[in-house]
Amino acid sequence: MIPHVMLAPIIHRALAEDLEGGDLTTEATIDGTTLAVAHARARNEVVACGGDVFRAVFQAIDPSLYVTLDAPEGKRVVRGDTLWTVKGSARSILMGERTALNFVQRMTGIATLSRHYVEAIPAGCRTRVTDTRKTTPGLRVLERYAVRTGGAHNHRDTLGSAILIKDNHIIACGGIRTAVERARRRAPHTSRIEVEVESLAALDEALDAGAEIVLLDNFSPADIEEAVRIAKSRALIEVSGGVTLERIATLARAGVDIISVGALTHSAPAADIGLDFEPS
């Protein structure tokens, strides 16, 4: 569930963007008393996501519209299945159609791709697939929700929610140990310290400095296996950079704890969902 206080302004901005000058076509062709029923249907197999957003868009336009959520969030549906239905003023439905579909196509696409990555983890492996902060500005709450709906996990939500010392932090303060020591002095006792490393030598330095999570950036397969061996029981191992769906099983079997995948949000294809009016 996405909190209303976060969802409402997103929907308001999207509707204002599309309806600043009204809807000339609908207002010119559709009588204000015309009623309609429209079904949002999957054009191919997807993981349903965004029903509450779909409903909120239409009710922001016209509170009298009635929306039913036919497919539970996270359910895999096949081509032709109805995900959601909206009933009421035809004018109101047409005015909200594109905005509602834009949201749910994006969210369902992310949920579907996330499910593919999660299902690629071999049985018995405890590896966690997470997203990154590579999200659409202003839409992170929706995209992060979609990732969870697909069965994957979220990385840090904001810069203030966790400590992740990356390459530019290390350069700016003069080294890994200095960065970790400064972070430990300032970090709350509830926060782990994660350090991004680009070599096995840097991994050793981060572990010696007390890093509790190490992020292996663009490591070769052989170096990942060696890093897991070195860090075993000393720190969690996260892998990022160039992670494809085809590599997930290999990384999980190597003993990696976390696989962070920016593609879950920045490269997920929009789901093909259409809004079909019932014939009058």
Keywords:
about 280 residues; alpha/beta; Aldehyde Oxidoreductase, domain 3; TIM Barrel; six-stranded parallel β-sheet; four-stranded antiparallel β-sheet; 11 helices; about 45% helix
Give me a quick take on this structure.
The protein is an alpha/beta fold.
Task: Reconstruct the topology from this structure.
Blueprint: H1 4-19, H2 24-29, E1 35-42, E2 46-47, H3 51-61, E3 66-69, E4 76-77, E5 82-89, H4 90-119, E6 128-130, H5 140-149, E7 163-165, H6 167-173, H7 176-186, E8 193-197, H8 200-209, E9 213-217, H9 221-231, E10 236-240, H10 248-253, E11 258-260, H11 263-266, E12 273-277
Parallel strand pairs: 6-11, 7-8, 8-9, 9-10, 10-11
Antiparallel strand pairs: 1-5, 1-12, 2-4, 3-5
Helix pairs in contact: 1-3, 3-4, 4-5, 7-8, 8-9
Tell me what you see in this structure:
- Strands 6-11-10-9-8-7 form a six-stranded parallel beta sheet. A four-stranded antiparallel beta sheet has the order 3-5-1-12, with helices on one face. Strands 2-4 form a two-stranded antiparallel ribbon.
- It has two domains: 4-118 and 268-277, Aldehyde Oxidoreductase, domain 3, CATH 3.90.1170.20; 153-260, TIM Barrel (Alpha-Beta Barrel), CATH 3.20.20.70.
- It starts with a helix and ends with a strand.
- By secondary structure, it is α/β, with parallel strands linked by helices.
- It has helices at residues 4-19, 24-29, 51-61, 90-119, 140-149, 167-173, 176-186, 200-209, 221-231, 248-253, 263-266, and strands at residues 35-42, 46-47, 66-69, 76-77, 82-89, 128-130, 163-165, 193-197, 213-217, 236-240, 258-260, 273-277.
